[in-house]
Design goal:
The complex is a heterodimer of chains A (10) and B (212). Chain A contains 1 helix and no strands. Chain A has one helix at 2-6. Chain A is elongated and about 15 Å long. With 212 residues, chain B is an all-alpha fold. Classes of the chains: A mainly alpha (10), B mainly alpha (212).
Amino acid sequence: HIQQRLHDEL
Amino acid sequence: MNIFRLAGDMTHLASVLVLLLKIHTIKSCAGVSLRTQELYAIVFATRYLDIFTSFVSVYNTFMKLVFLGSSFSIVWYMRYHKAVHRTYDREQDTFRHWFLVLPCLVLALLIHEKFTFLEVLWTFSLYLEAVAILPQLVLLQRTRNIDNLTGQYIFLLGGYRGLYILNWIYRYFTEPHFVHWITWIAGLVQTLLYADFFYYYFLRFIGGRGVE
């Protein structure tokens, strides 16, 4: 989920 | 989402809208580097490959579509729209931008957070975006005087990543484990490349004249 957090940015 | 990131996204959106406004309404792309626009189209195409596989939020997906659509339509306008293409400064826009693509790809293959196809291309898009403005800044040096819209465009484009840096600082202090050196260094390099533009922009802006 950390990875997902990173790619929650544009 | 925090205020810095929202401000960053809105600034980025504003830069794209200013450029589309200039190209679509006055049918001119004078002073705009097609090569930088092509690099940005590649940046978004390689960064948003996960648009259909990983859903983050409506906002996220919507903004990705806006950036993808606008960057490709700007390239299309500058290449194929007769009236706009006529105002493109081909002789001056000669930065070998393809020479930027390969080193960024090699660097992404060497330095990344996870060695997967999507992650390597995502990292590639970060490195490429950091240097994508170079053809535009070189063109700026050559054409000396640029109109206000182009100046605003470059200012907003440089400012958005600066606001993202504030967003990363904020998230570093508010979220555990939020450490992403690759993103941070690429973002810092990208923003620093605008340093001398910002200097002249504020000089002119304070002087109240156009950006030279």
